[in-house]
Fold this protein.
Amino acid sequence: AYERRFPTCPLIPMFVASDTVNEYKSEDEAIHVIERRCKLDIDAPRLLKKIAGVDYVYFVQKNSLNRRERTLHIEAYNETFSNRVIINEHCCYTVHPDNEDWTCFEQSASLDIKSFFGFESTVEKIAMKQYTSNIKKGKEIIEYYLKQLEEEGITFVPRWTPPVACKLESSTSHTRRPVSPAINIPDSATKEGLNNKEILNTSSSPSEPTAGTPDDKLDADYIKRYLGDLTPMQESCLIRLRQWLQETHKGKIPKDEHILRFLRARDFNIDKAREILCQSLTWRKQHQVDYILDTWNPPQVLQDYYAGGWHHHDKDGRPLYVLRLGQMDTKGLVRALGEEALLRYVLSINEEGLRRCEENTKVFGRPISSWTCLVDLEGLNMRHLWRPGVKALLRIIEVVEANYPETLGRLLILRAPRVFPVLWTLVSPFIDDNTRKKFLIYAGNDYQGPGGLLDYIDKEIIPDFLGGECMCEVPEGGLVPKSLYRTAEELENEDIKLWTETIYQSASVFKGAPHEVLIQIVDASSVITWDFDVCKGDIVFNIFHSKRAPQPPKKESLGAHSITSPGGNNVQLIDKVWQLGRDYSMVESPLICKEGESVQGSHVTRWPGFYILQWKFHSMPACATTNLPRVDDVLASLQVSSHKCKVMYYTEVIGSEDFRGSMTSLESSHSGFSQLSAATTSSSQSHSSSMISR
């Protein structure tokens, strides 16, 4: 009956799909172990899913049926965010010892939240809610399938009995045991409490070598030269994990130094280190990360405007990377390159760091497995808190933390401005506790005093922009020209995709054919946020509210214009028979936006219902004093002779309870994300704010 719920179960709406990963059956059919990867649609706030960057979560479930002992053990653990949240669940069906007509059921679970983007308490509540709901429904589901079996005429399953061949073999030979090529799979079954001595004895676990074997020791000179001081226990862990990889992993085996990083990241817990290392090796293979330095050339815009680069080494011999974050136009880089190229560039930096560590190990004659990063925050301001830019930064940190553990030896943060605590609040939950301990933060010119830069970097190589004498070849950064910005469609056509999500959408706006986006609000006081750039022409931005839903979106044929728009979308929602003030109402004053302007804003909703964001073609008003057209009007009409405008936009809805604690807020909108703010409009009735930057 329990097996009937796979691969999907209509009684569990959140259970979307499942795939069989491993399956094992013993020769006598007494043991059946099956491992599945389950896809779940967790009932979580949209904000949390957006920040986490996932729509679904994946769990691994192992079911171990022992017909000899008459038990079914079910073990489940989370695969998604396993480095942040650890969920373990164990269920057991057994026969009652006093009454064989009764089935006993036991269930236990544990939840350990290490960090989750600052939403630890929210995740705990969601997990408890889901778990409680599952317990209540568990009996109902099993009874449903039992009844289904009865309706099919299945009311009895015969007891398992040993095959005759097995009986003869056990009576004639005690030394020979059947060995299956897939015998390693039941290793998980033994954890689930199956008392099968046959499996325990024949399962050859490469992570458990016999003490005293020749491979159980590493050469002392090799350890001292390349790995550093290791205790006997740490050395044994490295040997066991490397041996397991050699016997099971198909592909390039990482070097001992890299395996050691994953062991250190998990305090030499072999099971945990093996899990994250295997995930990383799979990720490296999928995205061809091993070949990135040889096959990928960074775009010119990165070489010109990414204000970071390698610069000699620190006093401990670690490679030194200098990042002038305050001089970097994060929004411009995201808009010109997309998240994929930025991530790929950061990965190439990390790969280069690994290579430099190997070189410095040879040069200095001692193990060097990490690098030092110097971050100069001179120039950091509120424009660096641009929401999609911060989101891209957080996702990059997530990837680097998962695949390059224990590579950051020290992080020196210099000239931290007053806005830095805001950025630190957003970023710090993504950073491992061990990594955070390596951070040294200096405000103003404190880095020049005792305990400052000179304690870690030789005077001869301190960069010139920090008052040193060494010329630093790191690019100075600066604003990326808007002429280099690309549309979402252009970014989607890149050959290599490390991320599938594109932040921005493109839309075309025509005279008489505005582009409209529908947002349904269930809870009043939710917050609608937006960020858009006017790429071509002038537009008018409006926000409307309606109590009833408009007709399903339709692609506008554009009638007499006969203009196709391969590079943008055009959707109209407001029916032509609708009347303003009767069928829908305007909740914000119209905002005129000129070509080249960037607009960010937010609106706190007062009522539930349907909100429509509208970008409309802006017609140039005629001159009031004369019938002759002005020179500006003629030039403007020539500029938009096709009566077509283009915008790139990003919208999001945030619950009111989450708004002030999220990556953007009403206050930050007022402060501004751009260097130059030309105008700000706000409405006291709807608590909305929009900011234009030219």
In short: The chain is about 30% helix and 25% strand.
